[in-house]
Amino acid sequence: MTTTPVGAAARSETVATMLDVRALKKVYEGRGRSVEAIRDLTFTVGSGELVCIVGPSGAGKTTLLRCIAGLLDSTSGEVVLEGERVTGPPPGMAVVFQEYGRSLFPWMTVRQNVELPLKEKKVPKAERRRLVEEALEAVGLSDVHGAHPWQLSGGMQQRVAIARAVAYEPHLLLMDEPFAAVDAQTRADLEDLVRSLWRRLGVTVLFVTHDIDESVYLGRRVIVLSDSPTVVLEDVVIDLPDERDQLTTRSLPRFAELRAHVYELVQRAKGGHRPTS
Ligand SMILES: Nc1ncnc2c1ncn2[C@@H]1O[C@H](COP(=O)(O)OP(=O)(O)OP(=O)(O)O)[C@@H](O)[C@H]1O
């Protein structure tokens, strides 16, 4: 068993930075009332990393992802993706939301749903065909390409949403609690799907979840957010082997240590604690 202490992440200088969030602050203003959702968030995600974000409900996770996705303006600070400041939805990014039911078009087939962003990106037809086929195969849905989303289970619909994101060949894949609405068994399968796609495609993934076990199982790092107004409470290195499976990994003593550590941090965050440094 490893004796590495559970602790804050040391930044690796050898990995190129994909995403740089600098002193991000977001205050919602409206009707004589202002809500400081995010106070000061600074972190980076290296190219090819899989980083999870956890924090108490209302910690500003969705607000953060919306700022990163260029869907929401920050109050101050900045988001830099591959060296370019984000001022609107950037071309190299795809997002998978929790509400797969609302993110897929019910009148389109699975294939048409996956193909749509590629058409908008003006990818030539033959290339589109190849990308759609590869993506559907990667998520195990080649045989249902002609079906409509409403003919599929929730887990299958979320696979379609993942295929659509993957076909787009994003450099950064943002996932906002993507498995919150599926059953536990499907969730485990989808977690393994994300890990296998990440390892195979080398895409950078930023994954927001409520689920502490899920964050430790998936991530190489887990960034724990404080209660709102939000700061980074701790950036935890998940030093588990890259080969992971639901049974073996989750029974490792190190997994239990890391889970306990992240759990304790989230509990502290709920109590309104701020980082000590
Ligand atoms: N459009 C908005 N206008 C005003 N306040 C908002 C708006 N959206 C979010 N907030 C507030 O900002 C804070 C952070 O919300 P956000 O949805 O980003 O948190 P979250 O961590 O994603 O929550 P959850 O885990 O419950 O989904 C909350 O206090 C919320 O009430």
Automatic annotation (TrEMBL):
Q: Which PROSITE patterns match?
A: ABC_TRANSPORTER_1, ABC_TRANSPORTER_2
Is this entry keyworded ATP-binding? yes
The molecular function GO annotations come to:
ATP binding
Q: Which UniProt keywords apply?
A: ATP-binding, Nucleotide-binding, Transport
UniProt domain ABC transporter: residue ranges: 19-252
Gene3D superfamilies to which the protein is assigned, alphabetical: P-loop containing nucleotide triphosphate hydrolases (3.40.50.300)
Q: Does the keyword ATP-binding apply?
A: yes
Q: What is this protein called?
A: ABC transporter ATP-binding protein
What is the phylogenetic placement of the source species in the record? Bacteria, Bacillati, Actinomycetota, Actinomycetes, Streptosporangiales
